[in-house]
Batch of 2 targets.
Target 1
Amino acid sequence: MNKGFVLALCTVALFLGLSSTAAHAQQCTASVNCHNSCFLNYECPRPYPPCTLVCSASSQVVSCTGVSSCTTTTTSVTCDGVTKSCPTTSQCHQSLYSISCGSTTRQCTYNCPV
């Protein structure tokens, strides 16, 4: 047999073997709802005029993808030994002149937002 032909045949066989292995690899996914939605309704204090600030944040979902194992608890997910947990603090916060929910912040102003 021609050495070039044998080399080409071996290369094709190796490629097909690797492709077959990759195609058979299974993935798993785990996700958990953190049940941490929140809502704030806040009346601005003096010296600001009467103004109500409102904000809310949806519940967060934590998820992961693994190759060998995926598990969940009520507050975390673990994929291939790596754990992701739900936040332990609220998404909504109030200070003296502002509120925040998730990535949204509302501040008291002298011109109350409509």
Target 2
Amino acid sequence: MAGLGNSYPRQITTYGSTRFPHALGIVSQFATCGVVSFVTDAGDFWIYLDGTDPKTPMFGGYAEIMTNPGGGVALGTAVAKTPLILGRGDAVSIFGSRRVSASANVISDDKPALGLMWGSGANVSYLFVKGSVGELRIGSEAEWQAGTGTLLATKAPSGKADPRRSGRGVIGGNDRPIAMRAAAVVSAGRGAAFVLSSGDQDSAVAFYTSDGVSLTTSTYNVWRTWNAS
């Protein structure tokens, strides 16, 4: 895979720094977990947590996030509950609030993406959704733009959430008609992560990649240890 170099593609919003460990954290009100939302013309898709202990990372559309969270597609193994109040530790930027049902949204016509740095700063791979077919994939910049990469999950489009709903924070993209939009998380150490707070607000699950073709899920502390190793 080609190295990152000194720049990102156009329409990329970056978070973090290669000077210190960094994760993007999403918190939400009690009984609703923090989520990442991929907003496309065909429908909205979410990465979220299902269950209490353990918590299963899931991918789903509007129908799953609103009425049937167990009907989504599991992403990796379930993660045992480990006490952690997201936002009281270092190395994490917080989006959302414990006062509203919150999400971090990437908006694009068809392939919104969330980039994760890995390989000790040498690479960024993009987790993206092909909205027209409901595919969650991960791949290099070229694979994201081509709509290829490794298929992680598929869920048919099933609707869109109200963009004016409180708690929906945009981390990448806007309403201009440009197809390629993304946010990217950069970090010192082995790799960046995004972290979803649990519905009980006292634990969290981290998502990251060590090879650019798969997604790893773990507790926040396991990610920190891996990042520093």
